[in-house]
Amino acid sequence: MVADLVERFVTTAPRPALGLATGGTMEPVFAELVRRHREHGLSFARVRAYLLDEYLGLDREDPCAYRNAIRRLLARHVDLGAGAVHGPDTHAADLDAECDRYERELRAAPIGLQLLGIGSNGHIAFNEPGSPLDSTTRVVALRGQTRAENARFFPAAQAVPTRAITQGIATIGAANQLVMVACGEHKADSVARALEGPVTSEVPASAIQLHPNVTVVLDRSAAASRAR
Ligand code: PGA
After folding, report:
1. Pairing state of beta strands 85-86 and 53-55?
2. What band does 81 get if pLDDT is binned at 50, 70 and 90?
């Protein structure tokens, strides 16, 4: 279902600007897009892709950097040029200025379809609970829970970074269409709070309720809770 939405977008938009999320949830999505490229010639040649967030403090070549994960899982297997993947420069001397630059780039793109995961604490991108609903691209500190959950993507000897650059909640909301995906019972409570609870900065993903064009794709386990 998610690949269908992406395929329709990249084949019909005049200049497709695709917002990419990373994380375990997106891996089968990317695998399906790669399969469609190989078997059916689905082309990404016209696509410009934009990262949702990126860790701070990793080497440029670190495989755990989201830019490199996107290259490994998607870009290198399809006809998406390396130069077509855009993200914040986490090695910029002035990170605040770099966040402002990336925010302007995103607004100018503008993003047509944005893929989103959701954290089990209700985060979207790296907007942790408490993030203002009007936030824009900025440097953030990662919560212990987020770092613990993402440790599975890092080698045992490597610490998960403590900071990241993330698109803000308002930045994400400026995309034309949002597609949120969640799988597994560990997501059920945050999904229920995001979709059925009040819109609040304590559940950053609840901001998608304010967006006019959202598709949420859940497996049964992620859909199993009700907001309390
Ligand atoms: P996951 O992460 O896809 O690895 O569960 C999603 C998120 O934290 O936004």
Report:
1. unpaired
2. confident
Question: What is the pTM assigned to this prediction?
Answer: 0.97
**119 CB within 6 A, ligand 1:** yes
Q: Which atom of ligand 1 is nearest to the CA of 27?
A: 3
Cα–Cα nearest to 86, from 140, 121, 47 = 47
Task: Name the nearest CA neighbour of 95 among 144, 44, 57.
Answer: 57
Determine if ligand 1 sits within 6 Å of the CB of residue 22.
no
> Could you give the CA distance from residue 4 to residue 32 in angstroms, rounded to a whole number?
10
How far, in Å, CA of 184 to CA of 25, rounded? 10
The per-residue DSSP string of 89-117 comes to -TT-S-HHHHHHHHHHHHHHTT-SEEEE-
Instruction: Give residue 161 CA to ligand 1 midpoint distance, Å.
Output: 16
Instruction: Return the residue whose CA atom lies nearest to atom 2 of ligand 1.
Output: 23
